[in-house]
From TrEMBL:
Keywords: Heme, Iron, Iron storage, Metal-binding. GO terms for biological process: intracellular iron ion homeostasis; iron ion transport. This is Bacterioferritin. Belongs to the bacterioferritin family. Pfam families: Ferritin. Residues 1-145 form the Ferritin-like diiron domain. Fe cation 1 binds at E18, E51, H54, E127. It is an enzyme of class 1 (oxidoreductase). It comes from Acidicaldus sp. Its cofactor is heme b. Fe cation 3 binds at E50. It catalyses: 4 Fe(2+) + O2 + 4 H(+) = 4 Fe(3+) + 2 H2O.
């Protein structure tokens, strides 16, 4: 099925964002694990894998619309150097994604591509869940301090 070029452009823009997020969140996972913050590390690992699934859905849709997925371009990674910075950088990425996907969903609606609009609406829901998590955790850091917060998120000892 031949898709509208503007819709395919939005899908590729979303793909670029998701592929960037995969790398950013994976590096944050490895940093957190290296610092011994195991509970958060596992959460970031899961988020990176979720972003990879999002990228796969976008690739599948681009190909269905007879477009070509651009996997060669990434945005700059926003890497944090502390637990709080990681959350702040990832929150920025999630807020950007939500805005990007809302704009894309509107463009898909205008192009009468309701299936692609539905994909973007599903992605928005996933991003909003992550935004809520990050905002909640950052608020908790604000209340109890980053040191106590980090201590509470260490998890079990990694013996490997």
């Amino acid at each position: 099925m031949k898709g509208e070029p503007a819709v395919i452009d939005h899908l590729n823009e979303a793909l670029r964002h998701e592929l960037t997020a995969v790398n950013q969140y994976w590096l944050h996972y490895r940093l957190l694990k290296n610092w011994g913050v195991h509970d958060l590390a596992e959460k970031w690992r899961a988020e990176s894998i979720e972003e990879m699934r999002h990228a796969d859905q976008l690739i599948e849709r681009i190909l269905f619309l007879e477009g070509f997925p651009n996997m060669q371009t990434l945005d700059a990674l926003g890497i944090g150097k502390t637990v709080q910075e990681i959350m702040e950088r990832d929150l920025q990425a999630e807020l950007l994604a939500r805005a990007l996907y809302a704009k894309a969903a509107a463009a898909c609606h205008a192009a009468q591509d309701f299936a692609t609009r539905g994909l973007f609406e599903t992605l928005i829901q996933d991003e909003e869940a992550h935004i809520d998590f990050l905002e909640t955790e950052l608020a908790l850091i604000g209340k109890i301090g980053v040191e106590l917060y980090t201590q509470r998120r260490l998890g079990k000892l990694d013996e490997t």
